[in-house]
Structures are given as C-alpha cells and as structure tokens.
Amino acid sequence: MKQLRTVRGVQDILPAQYKYFKAVVDTASLWAERYGFKAMSLPIIEKEEVFKRPLGETSDIISKEMFTLENRDKGEKIILRPEATASIARSFLQHGLQHNLPQKLYYWGPMFRYERPQKGRLRQFNQFGVEFLGVDDPYQDVEIISLGYNLLKALGLENDVELHINTLGDTASRSAFREALVTYFQSVKSGLSEDSLKRLEVNPLRILDSKNEGDQKLCQQAPKFDAYLSKTSKMHFDRVCNGLKILGIKYIHKSNLVRGLDYYCHTVFEFSTKKLGSQGAVLAGGRYDGLTSYMGGQPVEAFGWAAGIERLMMLLEENKTFNLKKERCIGVIPLDENAEIPCWKIAQKLRQEGFSVDILWKGTMGKRLKKLDKANVDIAILMGEDEQSVNKVMIKFLKESRQELASIDTLAAFLKI
RNA sequence: GCGGGCGUAGCUCAGGUGGUUAGAGCACCAGAUUGUGGCUCUGGGGGCCGUGGGUUCAAGUCCCAUCGUUCGCCCCA
C-alpha cells in the first residue's frame, strides 16, 4: 500500500516545531492584551461574498487562490477563508459591534490559499491578527504598528526585520493617481514586461514595484503619487511617520509598497525579512476605512495587521536567542510492583499541586532514567523496597547529579523550594 | 500559473563515465551495567533508492511522465 501523506502545500507541525508555534501565539496574545485587544474566534468557512468585493474580484486571492466547497443542502458556494480581516468586518456588522466603538479584536487560526507552495508559503497557514475598528487618528495607526514591533522585539526578531511603510491615500487621490499611471503606461506600453501588461489591466500601482529592469526604467518617468495626494492624505501620512519617530521605531518609506487587496487606504506597512527567501513579509497590514461599506454597512475607520505564524516560527527556530519557557517537570519511577500504586498516588498529588508529572511504568531503572535524561526532565522520583519500608521516596535531581530521601507526606512542599 | 534544482534508512548525506548481497554519521534497540541517567565500548534492527513507464544482458545511476519538495517569477502572511 502506498504511504499516506499530507496533501500538497500543507504540513504537520510536530511537537519539536510546535513549541515555536506556541511561543509565537502566546507572545502575540500577551502583547495584544497589553494593548487592550480582546481575543475572538471566527469560522474557517464563510460565504464567498464576504471576501469577493472587499479583496477585489481581480485580486489574485479571489481570482485564482480560493478553496471552494459546496454547501450540500442549499447548493450555495462556501469557501475556506483566505484571510480574516473581511471575516472580522462581517462579524462586526452581524453583531452590531459598531454601536460600541472602538473595538479592539485579535484572533489566530488557519487560512487557505491555493498557491504554488514554497518555503514560507503554504496552502494552509496560520495567521495571528489584530483589528482596531472605529479609529481615524493617524497616531492610532502607529499604536498598532508599535504592537507589531513590540511583538517582534519580544520574539527577539527585531534585527531580522525591516519596517516598510507607505500611503495609498484616500479613494479620490488613489483613483486620480491610478488614472494618471494608466495614461502614462499606456503611452509606453511597448516597453512594459508581460507581467506588467497584465498589471496595467488589473492593478497598475503594482507596476511600480516590478522587479523587471525595463519596467523600473519606465517607472522613473512615471507620475509620482505625491502630486496626487490630497492634503488630508498627506497630513495623515506625515503624522504616522512622525508618530513612529516619537516611539523610536525605525522605518523605511517605500513609495512602491502596494497592497493587493482593495480594502486598504492611507497607511500600509509591512515588517519584512530577508531570511525567508522571496516570502519576506512576516507581519503586514494597514488602514481599511472602507471595508464595512463594501459589505453594505456604514463606513467604519479601522486599522489592523496579520502576522504569518509559520514564518515567525521559522525565524524563531533559526534565531535561537529566544528563550522558550520550560516548565520544571518530574518523572516518577516505581521500581517494583508494590511501588506502582503508591507512585501513582504521588504523581496524582503532585499534578494537583501544579507539577508536570510523567510516570514511567516499565523498563530497568537505567533505561527509565535514560529516558528522562533524554527528555530533559529535571527531577526523578524513585520508589523501591528500601524507600517504601521507611515511607519515603528518593528524589534525584538529574541536572545536579545528586539525590536525597524525602518523606512522601511533605513531598510537594519539598519540591516547591 | 511560468522557468530551474533536488528526491537514497526516522534525520543529514555518500554512492566518477550503468556492473555482485546499496553505505556512513546521528537517532533507535540490546548488551557490557540485576538499585542509578549523561561518557565510552560491542552488537543489532531498519531501504518497493519518491512513484509509474521506457532503454539495456544489466538501472540508485540513462530517458520520459508523474507526485513531492526547493529556488526564482507572480503574489502574499
């Protein structure tokens, strides 16, 4: 029989890696809560419409990366969510959260995109995200970016990433600029690369960050966004930059930073790394004031970001400067049959006292100690005939190569020191 | 979706121009060690050489396809 394996582009995360995954989620949750965000959970399946308009029909995610399902009884189309910001907006409207602004929400969970797999790019991957709804002050943009910064710093990754920011302006500025770009690039169309010809149709702003040399040359002569930015857009962005300076967060203004999703406006940013090949973005987001109105609700100003948990996990694994929390754990070894039940009771009691305890029922003492040593366990508790006769156990401190007898009744107190 | 590299033991990898029973290190198991782990030594188990087809007297090795992975493009977390 053929060996069963995971489907393309998805992965198991075994305990050896999961500890890093958990470190990312725990650290991110901790920091989100320090900023006043509240956790919530969203479904993995949604109606297609939740994403279609907000992300844009022509976006890659909608046009070619959706996992679709059929809802059997109604024949309606269901999709596996490709991201969660639109889900948040849907949930926000569904439950009337706009009546209690602002809302600070965070979530994490799997997302699905039908892409060509690569290192750091999976078809099922996990994102951790925060969304701040009901705020228009540019300093709040900075506040949320600083949460991302603090998270990366807490993970010991601040030297692995760069912060890139840009503004997409308001709708009017952006469409004026877009028009100017289209006019310009139409006039030099013959010099554009094949990819950029497509971009000209789908997302002309994208031509600006083309890696093609010919495109880049043409871009030098292209209209500049600055000339089309409205006064308020400019002020917004200046204030964001100023806020970052106030908090001492280094950034690079990349005027060609564009997001592929329609719902973004004004500030967009990404923390990106060079250590993951072409999958550089580890934590990215921006402002999306119009998102709720795409769904038929009142417009609500909002700012948020999402981080790729697996990408951060990979950086963490490589970096090694991050200290994983390790609980002190104990292994209990009954040396003969008579010791089994007393040992079991001891283990139960210690667990109730808050210790992590494993019982090793079988094997020679040497084998069992060896197992504990390999598992990096701190303390072994041994009980054989000798100990039982005096109502004690042997406590072995594996890291310190010493052991001493301890009374069973006062064991928990003894170990807590 | 497009172009390139790579798939040999659980892991990391050797296996010139095709030629006996496919190797190493680490890991695993057992013993040296019948109440004491780490160190050392000795032995052992493990392989449809990713899969399918083809060329050949003969394929881990060459060819084709396919799947997976990886790098770049695209895109993105």
How would you characterize this protein structure?
The chain is of the alpha+beta class and 417 residues long. The protein has 2 domains: 246 residues, BirA Bifunctional Protein, domain 2 (2-Layer Sandwich); 88 residues, 3-Layer(aba) Sandwich (Rossmann fold), CATH 3.40.50. A hairpin with a 4-residue loop joins β15 and β16. The mean pLDDT is 90. The longest helix is centred in the N-terminal third of the chain and has 20 residues. It is built from 15 helices and 16 strands. The strands form 3 sheets. The chain has an 8-stranded mixed sheet. A 5-stranded mixed sheet has the order 13-12-14-15-16, with helices on both faces. The protein has a 3-stranded antiparallel sheet with strand order 2-4-3. α1 packs across α11. Helices cover 39% and strands 23% of the residues. It is elongated and about 95 Å long. The structure holds one RNA strand of 77 nucleotides.
